[in-house]
Automatic annotation (TrEMBL):
Belongs to the phosphohexose mutase family. Residues 15-133, 167-272, 277-376 form the Alpha-D-phosphohexomutase alpha/beta/alpha domain. InterPro entries: A-D-PHexomutase_a/b/a-I (IPR005844), A-D-PHexomutase_a/b/a-I/II/III (IPR016055), A-D-PHexomutase_a/b/a-II (IPR005845), A-D-PHexomutase_a/b/a-III (IPR005846), A-D-PHexomutase_C (IPR005843), A-D-PHexomutase_C_sf (IPR036900), A-D-PHexomutase_CS (IPR016066), Alpha-D-phosphohexomutase_SF (IPR005841). One of its GO terms (biological process) is carbohydrate metabolic process. One of its GO terms (molecular function) is magnesium ion binding. Keywords: Isomerase, Magnesium, Metal-binding, Phosphoprotein. Pfam families: PGM_PMM_I, PGM_PMM_II, PGM_PMM_III, PGM_PMM_IV. The keyword Calcium does not apply. Residues 431-479 form the Alpha-D-phosphohexomutase C-terminal domain. The keyword Magnesium applies. This is Phosphomannomutase/phosphoglucomutase.
Length: 484
């Protein structure tokens, strides 16, 4: 079997609901990426057939440079002009796509292990591309190119290189008022990912910006796609132990951790405890709601949240005078909802935070800037307020965190849950299966959601309840039901 035939066999396997992910060599190869480049160039061409300019960024994974070149070769063959961004974070590609109104692709597997790689696509203006909005068409065109070869156009595109980090850093700084910021000590765990490049530019003076009153203590800033110190996903329990210990050892005000492509951010308080992403979203949401309310007291302000964030986030949004809108999980889906609703902000349980100010796209560093600004301004009785106290004001109820389960028969699992909880709960299949207990005013509320992952072969379980004991009871009952 030729390399093109092998790539064709793997195409449907690696193209998912809103991006491309696969094992390097075994599933994702240069011929396949080249075909995707040609197909993407066709998809984003004008209705009249005029080729677009396409920005291509890459993370520090060992295969990313090769795949960036392969994608560029395929897109150029179909007439696209290429802007090679080189090493950058995923949100830098959103910045270029939004600022310059050009399509973009990021070569990254985000939080997946080192043996994976992938691609994230944006239409011009940082508009997301999911299976329903063009990614399936890209897959189908790529299949044709793998089967028949890529036919070059009469005038292939050109290629140039661009360093956008200084402009990106300046843009983020312009979105958050940091001028009255109190001095802060921050430990940052880049996890050998792209935050090792972007954090010194945004929080420091590496991009030529004025120094902030922030002392950054770096952990694992060396770019290394083998991820020698921790996995690129900061979310699983125990992933941030080094950061938690460093925050305490250095007497820091807080800690920040980023995933491999640096678009997700996790926060640690001064006591070394993880601040739940729902609490981070609540802190940022209150700031942006207050800003928009001051600008237009009569405006309807919308904030998005996915369905597995805490009920406390809904209550916080409503208390601040805005409208919470629940979305499905997934960055492309939420970006579509950001544009349709005009939401000022969106938060996910996974540490993705979306901003109208940032073309409706997600940006972990921008969320971090808002947390820093809020903490640097917060006082009680004339004394600085610790992050733990600030987060406690919007802390979630008792949550299980995301539990990943290997379940072969998802429909059978759903049927078992419905049978077990019929008469005791309401059911919703908006995104997976959400089960909400029919509790009285004297009983602690509870809910849980099970849904298939869009990026991994697992079923994800999230549970929340009014009390820790109730959460444990519900969690263990569901795990027993699923034989996990």
């Amino acid at each position: 079997m030729s390399s093109s035939q092998e790539a064709l066999a793997h195409l449907s396997l690696v193209v998912g609901s809103y991006d491309v992910r696969g094992l390097v060599g075994a599933e994702l190869t240069a011929p396949l990426v080249r075909a995707l480049g040609a197909a993407f160039a066709d998809e984003v061409a004008t209705p009249g057939g005029q080729a677009a300019e396409i920005a291509i960024g890459q993370d520090m994974r060992e295969s990313s440079a090769e795949f960036a070149e392969a994608f560029a070769d395929g897109a150029e063959a179909r007439g696209a002009s290429i802007v090679m961004l080189g090493l950058c974070s995923t949100d830098e590609t959103y910045f270029v796509s939004g600022r310059d109104v050009v399509p973009a692709v990021m070569i990254t597997a985000s939080h997946n292990p080192a043996e994976y790689n992938g691609l994230k696509f944006s239409r011009a203006g940082a508009v997301s591309m999911s299976a329903d909005t063009g990614l399936s068409a890209v897959r189908d065109r790529a299949a044709g190119y793998l089967a028949d070869g890529i036919e070059p156009v009469a005038s292939p595109g050109s290629r140039r290189h661009a360093d956008v980090l200084p402009a990106y850093a300046a843009h983020l700084r312009s979105l958050v008022d940091l001028t009255p910021l109190s001095p802060l000590r921050v430990v940052v765990d880049a996890g050998n990912g792209m935050a090792g490049l972007t954090v010194p530019a945004v929080l420091g003076d590496a991009a030529g910006l004025a120094a902030l009153p922030i002392e950054v203590i770096p952990l694992y800033f060396e770019l290394d796609g083998t991820f020698p110190h921790r996995a690129p996903n900061p979310m699983p329990a125990g992933s941030l132990l080094d950061l938690q210990q460093a925050v305490i050892a250095h007497g820091a005000d807080l800690g920040l951790a980023f995933d491999g492509d640096a678009d997700r951010c996790f926060v640690i308080d001064e006591a070394g405890e993880v601040v739940d992403p729902s609490a981070v979203a609540a802190i940022v949401a209150r700031r942006l709601i207050a800003r928009d309310r001051a600008a237009d007291p009569a405006a309807e302000i919308v904030v998005l949240l996915n369905l597995v964030t805490s009920r406390r986030l809904v209550e916080t949004i409503e208390a601040a005078g805005a409208v919470p809108v629940v979305t499905k999980v997934g960055h492309s889906l939420i970006k579509e909802d950001m544009r349709e609703t005009g939401a000022v902000f969106g938060g996910e349980h996974s540490g993705h935070y979306y901003f109208r100010d940032f073309f409706g796209a997600d940006n972990g560093l921008l969320a971090a800037l808002h947390v820093l600004a809020e903490l640097g301004l917060a006082e009680r009785g004339g004394q600085p307020l610790a992050l733990s106290a600030l987060a406690a004001e919007v802390a979630p109820y008792a949550m299980s965190g995301e539990i990943n389960l290997e379940v072969d028969d998802v429909p059978g699992a759903y049927a078992s849950i419905v049978e077990a909880y019929s008469g005791d709960a309401d059911f919703d299949e908006f995104d997976g299966l959400t089960v909400t207990g029919l509790t009285s005013t004297t009983e602690p509320f509870w809910w849980f959601n099970v849904r298939p992952s869009n990026t991994e072969p697992v079923l994800r379980l999230n549970v929340e309840a009014a009390t820790a004991a109730e959460m444990v009871r519900v969690r263990d009952a569901v795990l027993t039901l699923l034989d996990a």
